[in-house]
């Protein structure tokens, strides 16, 4: 209240000054007053006895009146109100008993279920956010793994290029050798041609010479010589035949 | 002192100070405004959940231009539900048992819906006066009947809520008076009347919620026709 009075009394338009004034007065209070982070909600509400009366009353009266103090106070109060007819029993009392029973029964029977359901609403909210966060994290982890795989693949790429380079070099080498082979073959062919040409020439020369010699020899043979040679041949043949017959008979 | 049965419906006054304003506005504190937290306590979480479910259900069949009415109808639902259920407690005054409040709400909202329909799409709104698929001969009579039914709607809305709640409260008062009177004379009969009172209280709780929902649902239906 004092802080509000302070804030109202000082007519400042600058929000920072007024805020700092409020904050300055708050230093007198014991709780930590900060705007963020928001202080967490307590897990359980204030303790109550019999669903209505806060526990603080019992603790307050305990030093003076002990355990039965608050109950005596309650009973005395009710008896006083009834006896002095400050509270008149009328039809509403009957109805109050009725609706009170219904409410108490309803809370006792369905209280836990309803509380669990309401807690599940909050938990669903948290679960959704958590699921979104988890899916994002898993997506990023997968992305990291894929990236690492890609890097490994890039390392292997060097080997691939080496192999390809070797392949290409081999192809070039093969091609070169083939062409060399072709060149040698062509040269050999041309040389063979020349050799065959020379052989042909020599053969023609030989044949021509032999033909000339034969011609000359045949033309030089006289008929006298021919007869003599034939007679000699016949005589030789006879001799041979005799010797053969003799060999055969022997 | 004998109380007349209808004294419970008198607008409460203490030393000539009318308390009806407090009776209407005090239940407002039961619905705290949403905090800056992401996860709230149970009561806020349940209120938010219920309100979002109810509003989405009510506005499911309404075209998008009618969604401007979401705030009005949802706050009306909360208002009526709270008034009705708070009236179930003993010694309380139920504002929605008064014809003045109900007719005020029903008349104003119905007229708003009809005027909206007549202004934005007059042909379509007037077309509702003749239902589809009706035989041509009955057209004049049907138009008259539909017009009468159109004008009876606000009265029906207001009186429905008033009558239900007044009747319920009256019955409760009667039964409880009977129980009290017979408690000393004929206790067994009083026990039976007491059981009747239990069942009646349960019925009244159901009626309180249902009547509020029906009011808002009918208004949303009229909106659906006209938007």
UniProtKB/TrEMBL annotation, chain A:
The keyword Ion transport applies. It is found in: Mitochondrion; Mitochondrion inner membrane. Pfam families: Mt_ATP-synt_B (PF05405). One of its GO terms (molecular function) is proton-transporting ATP synthase activity, rotational mechanism. The keyword 4Fe-4S does not apply. It comes from the Eukaryota. Subunit b, of the mitochondrial membrane ATP synthase complex (F(1)F(0) ATP synthase or Complex V) that produces ATP from ADP in the presence of a proton gradient across the membrane which is generated by electron transport complexes of the respiratory chain. ATP synthase complex consist of a soluble F(1) head domain - the catalytic core - and a membrane F(1) domain - the membrane proton channel. These two domains are linked by a central stalk rotating inside the F(1) region and a stationary peripheral stalk. Belongs to the eukaryotic ATPase B chain family. This is ATP synthase subunit b. The lineage of its organism: Eukaryota, Metazoa, Chordata, Craniata, Vertebrata.
TrEMBL record, chain B:
It is a multi-pass membrane protein. InterPro entries: ATP_synth_F0_asu, ATP_synth_F0_asu_AS, ATP_synth_F0_asu_bact/mt, F0_ATP_A_sf. The chain crosses the membrane at residues 9-31, 69-89, 101-118, 138-159, 180-199, 205-223. The keyword Isomerase does not apply. It catalyses: H(+)(in) = H(+)(out). It comes from the Eukaryota. Keywords: ATP synthesis, CF(0), Hydrogen ion transport, Ion transport, Membrane, Mitochondrion, Mitochondrion inner membrane, Transmembrane, Transmembrane helix, Transport. Its main location: mitochondrion. One of its GO terms (molecular function) is proton-transporting ATP synthase activity, rotational mechanism. It is found in: Mitochondrion inner membrane. Pfam families: ATP-synt_A. One of its GO terms (cellular component) is proton-transporting ATP synthase complex. Component of the ATP synthase complex composed at least of ATP5F1A/subunit alpha, ATP5F1B/subunit beta, ATP5MC1/subunit c (homooctomer), MT-ATP6/subunit a, MT-ATP8/subunit 8, ATP5ME/subunit e, ATP5MF/subunit f, ATP5MG/subunit g, ATP5MK/subunit k, ATP5MJ/subunit j, ATP5F1C/subunit gamma, ATP5F1D/subunit delta, ATP5F1E/subunit epsilon, ATP5PF/subunit F6, ATP5PB/subunit b, ATP5PD/subunit d, ATP5PO/subunit OSCP. Belongs to the ATPase A chain family. This is ATP synthase subunit a. It comes from Poecilia mexicana. The lineage of its organism: Eukaryota, Metazoa, Chordata, Craniata, Vertebrata.
């Amino acid at each position: 209240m004092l802080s509000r009075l302070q804030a109202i009394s000082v007519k400042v338009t600058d929000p920072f000054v007024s805020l700092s004034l409020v904050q300055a007065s708050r230093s007198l209070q014991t709780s930590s007053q900060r705007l963020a982070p928001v202080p967490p909600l307590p897990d359980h509400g204030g303790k109550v006895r019999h669903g209505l009366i806060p526990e603080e009353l019992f603790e307050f009266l305990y030093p003076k009146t002990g355990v039965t103090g608050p109950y005596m106070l309650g009973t005395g109060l009710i008896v006083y109100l009834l006896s002095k007819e400050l509270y008149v029993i009328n039809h509403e009392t009957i109805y109050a008993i009725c609706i009170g029973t219904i409410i108490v029964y309803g809370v006792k029977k369905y209280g836990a279920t309803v509380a669990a359901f309401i807690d599940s609403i909050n938990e669903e909210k948290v679960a959704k956010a958590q699921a979104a966060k988890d899916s994002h994290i898993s997506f990023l982890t997968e992305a990291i793994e894929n990236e690492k795989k890609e890097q490994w693949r890039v390392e292997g790429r060097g080997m691939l290029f080496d192999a390809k380079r070797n392949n290409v070099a081999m192809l070039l080498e093969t091609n070169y050798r083939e062409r060399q082979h072709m060149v040698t073959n062509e040269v050999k062919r041309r040389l063979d041609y020349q050799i065959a040409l020379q052989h042909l020439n020599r053969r023609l020369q030989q044949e021509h010479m032999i033909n000339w010699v034969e011609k000359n020899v045949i033309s030089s043979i006289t008929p006298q010589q021919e007869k003599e040679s034939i007679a000699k041949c016949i005589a030789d043949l006879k001799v041979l035949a005799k010797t053969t017959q003799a060999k055969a008979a022997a | 002192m004998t109380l007349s049965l209808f004294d419970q419906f008198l607008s409460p006054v203490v030393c000539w100070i009318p308390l009806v304003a407090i009776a209407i506005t005090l239940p407002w504190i039961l619905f705290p405004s949403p905090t800056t937290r992401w996860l709230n306590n149970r009561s806020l979480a349940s209120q938010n959940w219920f309100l979002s479910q109810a509003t989405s259900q009510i506005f499911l069949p309404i075209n998008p231009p009618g969604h401007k009415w979401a705030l009005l109808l949802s706050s009306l639902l909360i208002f009526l539900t709270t008034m009705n259920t708070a009236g179930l407690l003993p010694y309380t005054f139920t504002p929605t048992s008064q014809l003045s409040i109900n007719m005020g709400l029903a008349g104003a909202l119905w007229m708003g819906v009809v005027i909206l329909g007549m202004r934005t799409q007059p042909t379509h709104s007037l077309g509702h006066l003749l239902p589809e698929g009706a035989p041509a001969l009955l057209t004049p009579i049907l138009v008259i009947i539909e017009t009468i039914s159109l004008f009876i709607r606000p009265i029906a809305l207001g009186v429905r809520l008033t009558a239900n709640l007044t009747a319920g409260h009256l019955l409760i008062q009667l039964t409880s008076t009977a129980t009290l009177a017979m408690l000393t004379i004929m206790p067994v009969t009083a026990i039976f009347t007491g059981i009747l009172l239990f069942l009646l209280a349960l019925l009244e709780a159901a009626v309180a919620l249902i009547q509020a929902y029906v009011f808002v649902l009918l208004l949303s239906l009229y909106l659906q026709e006209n938007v």
